[in-house]
Write a structure and sequence with these properties.
Radius of gyration: 19 Å
Number of strands: 0
Order of helices and strands: HHHHHHHHHHHH
Helix content: over 70%
Number of helices: 12
Strand content: under 5%
Largest sheet: none
Structural class: mainly alpha
């Protein structure tokens, strides 16, 4: 007699075990060193079993990479106030984001800029369905941003209200969004060679100066 079908809770627990194993390997050796075989060995199963739960390695790595946003979400709740003005929210959101992404630049470069980013929204929501407690105390525009996988959409959710205040048109706001993300990716790549927290803090301050320059230029148009 065959085994009964797994419940949703059982399936989520199995998927979580693979995600947790992949995360451990990423911490130990870096995201580019993780393989299906290594994850399977760590969990204690065959490589074939992983393909019952994940389309491919990229899907598993994406889900594991999202786990690096846990501390960022906690920090965001503490430092971003829903009652703040749109300018403060925009800059504070980016400051917190850079503080965490510059510590794991390769993970976030792969998450947001490489691979099949078209599925990010879907996979981010799947991740939080498995780890719902990580969204505790997050609400409003911050929750909307966190649940969006696409980085352009995430930034636009906090940029658009501020850009409207500055008098940008929709086309100008979209251009500003594109330029900001390109600048962020450049800084993220530079962060890969930094091991000292002071150096990462300096890079973060540099990014924030550039961010303010980009937005404040609206007064000179």
């Amino acid at each position: 007699m065959g085994r009964a079908k797994y419940t949703e809770e059982e399936r989520a627990a199995i998927v979580a075990s693979f995600i947790n194993a992949a995360r451990e390997l990423m911490d130990e050796s870096g995201i580019d060193a993780v393989s299906i075989r290594k994850v399977a060995n760590k969990v204690g199963c065959s490589s074939a079993m992983l393909y019952l739960y994940f389309t491919d390695l990229d899907e598993l790595l994406t889900l594991a990479a999202v786990s690096y946003l846990e501390d960022y979400c906690k920090d965001l709740v503490l430092k971003v106030d829903e009652e703040e003005d749109v300018e403060s929210t925009y800059y504070r959101t980016w400051e917190v984001f850079c503080r965490h992404t510059f510590r794991h630049p390769r993970v976030f470069e792969r998450l947001f800029f490489e691979g099949d980013t078209s599925r990010l929204d879907e996979l981010v929501k799947e991740y939080y369905s498995i780890y719902p407690r990580q969204l505790n105390n997050i609400s409003g525009s911050v929750l909307k941003m966190v649940l969006s996988g696409d980085l352009a959409t995430r930034n636009m959710s906090v940029l658009e209200p501020y850009a409207q205040k500055l008098g940008y048109s929709q086309d100008e706001t979209s251009l500003l969004n594109d330029i900001t993300l390109s600048y962020f990716r450049t800084c993220l790549e530079r962060a890969e060679s930094l091991e000292d927290e002071k150096d990462r803090a300096t890079l973060r301050e540099e990014f924030m100066r550039g961010l303010r320059f980009l937005t404040h230029r609206s007064t000179d148009r």
